[in-house]
């Protein structure tokens, strides 16, 4: 607290909670990437929109960079503070502010965990459908900042589709009320959508109005074993033709091996190269359609085995095989690619990408999994214990450039749902044209004229 800048912040906001303990700096100064040494100036924990606004105005006056912080579950370095920035954590702003039964919206502070927002919706007999494994620790503000997707995008879409309105503190310290929960509004540019997926580079999301929907019907889960990578899209097409899907996820035998080592139960007596977990309505017609699709896939040589959950406990066990992958890989310090292409382009992209990685990574274990139903693949390269971290990352970055070129040819994105941050910034060119990037820079200059908001992330 002896830093003169912090003294001025304390003088401007005597009630603001500030942390400077080294353990707190290390905890709040990084995300799940673990590739940068955290070195923030301090951690600010505002308790209101007014305090956030005051912190941003102070940062502009003092020339201090800000790093907005949610649950810090990101995988792209977007919440890293490694250069003396002030981390602005919204964890104290975690309340439900209101529920509208007519509009079916839930207004929350941005620091509320996703799971808490889901539970609040359920308490009113409704459903907030964005969902993924980090639901207990990630926050709504972080979900919005990265336009998080998850396991049910094939049915419900991404976070962007469920944000009716935002309260947003811009990089210059203005408070904007965006969207206003209107269903129809043709009054010009929708600035709400600029805030979504902006990764804290334009301002800080402080409140959100979430759209809610009817709870889904009871669902059932089926796990399929597949003989080849090429069968994935054909199995997806076979199931989608016959019934509406809530989710359609895949993973490899290598991914399964790590999840089983982490405590999950083996689904079959034998190992298979690839697996799909799919979820659908638990009514008689849907289950009959799913079984018919499975039988057709077996007959066509696209599936080798399968199991359908007999109860909720078995369904949870099957889902654990997919949702437990990221946690099971964490100790191996993986280098992560999070890419997407159009579903129609997936077969050709899969073939080219698989050949590329097999050729370029003969010495590394590569774990594939992802949301095949919406064209999103997660590729994790595991660091050998003996390999130096810097050498491992350099080799992976070399191959990521080649993968980016493949994505560009297939019209894909280098970041499907984790954001660009620091990790993927060198490859933004494969997703956005020079003209688009120039316009993005202009937008940032308009909303963050002094460049205090999360500098170095997304754009240089």
TrEMBL record:
Its cofactor is FAD. InterPro entries: FAD-bd_oxidored_4_C, FAD-bd_PCMH, FAD-bd_PCMH-like_sf, FAD-bd_PCMH_sub1, FAD-bd_PCMH_sub2, FAD-linked_Oxase-like_C, FAD-oxidored/transferase_4, Oxid_FAD_bind_N. Residues 36-215 form the FAD-binding PCMH-type domain. Keywords: FAD, Flavoprotein, Oxidoreductase. One of its GO terms (molecular function) is FAD binding. GO terms for biological process: respiratory electron transport chain. It holds the Pfam family FAD_binding_4. Belongs to the FAD-binding oxidoreductase/transferase type 4 family. PANTHER family: D-2-HYDROXYGLUTARATE DEHYDROGENASE, MITOCHONDRIAL. This is FAD/FMN-containing dehydrogenase. It comes from Thermomonas haemolytica.
